[in-house]
Amino acid sequence: QVELVESGGGLVQPGGSLRLSCAASGSIYSIHTMGWYRQAPGKDRELVGLMPEEGRTNNAESVKGRFAVSRDYEKNTVYLFMLNLRPEDTAVYYCYADLIRQTDLRRDDYWGQGTQVTVSS
Question: Fewest CB within a 10 Å sphere: which of 63, 79, 93, 103?
Answer without folding.
Answer: 103
